[in-house]
Amino acid sequence: MFTTRKQYHPYVSPFDPCQPIRTKTYVTPPNLYIAFQPPNLPQFPLHEALKKGTLWKVFYDPYYSPYEMAHKGDGQ
Amino acid sequence: MWIYEKKLQYPVRVSTCNPKLAKYLIEQYGGADGELAAALRYLNQRYSIPDKVIGLLTDIGTEEFAHLEMIATMVYKLTKDATPEQLKEAGLDAHYVTHDNALFYHNAAGVPWTAAYIQAKGDPIADLYEDIAAEEKARATYQWIINMSDDPDLNDGLRFLREREIIHAQRFREAVEILKEERDRKKFF
Predict the structure, then answer these.
(1) Mind telling me how many Å the CA of A15 is from chain B's nearest CA?
(2) CB atoms within 10 A of CB B9
(3) In terms of CATH, what superfamily is B19-185?
(4) Residue B188 pLDDT > 60, yes or no?
(5) Which one of A35, A50, A63 has the shortest CB-CB distance to B173?
(6) What is the mean pLDDT of chain B?
């Protein structure tokens, strides 16, 4: 399934001083995949769009911290 | 000329007294990829870019000032009633000595804003690519601030600002497409 959250697994040394982070993540926002916005894309209702920061569903990609993810479990 | 509307682009709410968050947020106020740098970068580049994309730089540059105002409001709310002792705990003691509770254009490490953060190469593609990079860097900065913050109301505002960075990056990419003039894709919105 398509996601704007990508993962990779860096090398971990047996002698790393800190607890190793085995899975690193980064974001590839939707704008990377759309060169020129095609016409007639689906929109949010206007008041919702004002709150979300975009009119266009295809560009909506909210970011939640690990803290928020653990406590709410929504988004992404 | 500008017309000022006396309200914020998006409501700013702060739920906890946490001056430490102000220390992080100031990065988006006077940092290299903060809102001030963005606004000044785009509005300055307008004069030497093809006519077709001047309007875009005006619109986005103007919106960056609206974002600057939101960041200022967040920083102000987080610090306005903080005692010198609380500021000290938050690592803002040096800021307090120099500025009291005033805001100042510097980054999270206290380095003052400089015009060297922004560029105007005069080459439309080079300038737009810098703008795209600036938007992606600002988006990343918002992610790191959201990661450092446990204030849900503040994060709500930061998420809005981050979403706008995505849209701005998209529009700058489209500006590049316009300047490339692909004849088969003459679709405007």
Answers:
(1) 27
(2) 18
(3) Ferritin, core subunit, four-helix bundle (1.20.1260.10)
(4) no
(5) A35
(6) 94
